[in-house]
Structures are given as structure tokens and as C-alpha cells.
Amino acid sequence: MYTDSARQKRLTGKATLLAVINEQGFPEILEVMKGLGEGLDMQALIAVSDWRFKPAVKDGQPVAVIINVDVN
Which residues form the domain of 43? Predict the structure, then answer.
């Protein structure tokens, strides 16, 4: 969701987050690697925290992974 400040400044782009996805596909740790400012980084963190991922699999078992997530 765009913040009023970002909208007024016509700020566009993408935030890049580092995410640890657990064995159940839930994001456990989120960190802004490249942000946009004006409240958009927080909005990206909130959005991704609600996402669910297909768990990674190693040797037939689900495993936690670290991924980069771009949020437009």
C-alpha cells in the first residue's frame, strides 16, 4: 500500500527484502536490503509477512531457506 508521502513524491521502484522461509513456508525473519523510504519499506515488510511460500525441499524433506524478495 502506498503511503501518502510516497504518493505525493511520486516515488516508484522496488524494495528488496532478505527473508528466511521456514519449513512450513512461513517467513520468519525479514530484513530490508534495499529500501525506498517514505514508509514503503515498512509496507513491503508487512505485505511479505502475510505471504505463504512453498517450502524448499532437500533430500525429500522441507528445509528453511534464505531468499531475496523484490516488492514493487
Answer: 4-71
Structural domain total, the chain: 1
Helix (H) / strand (E) containing 31: strand 27-34
CATH number at residue 38: 3.30.2420.10
Q: Express each pLDDT in 25-63 by its tens digit.
A: 999 999 999 998 878 899 999 999 999 999 999 999 999
The three-state secondary structure class of 23 is coil
* pTM for the whole structure: 0.81
Q: Give the H or E element holding residue 7.
A: helix 4-8
Edge-to-edge strands, sheet with 27-34: 27-34, 15-21, 65-71
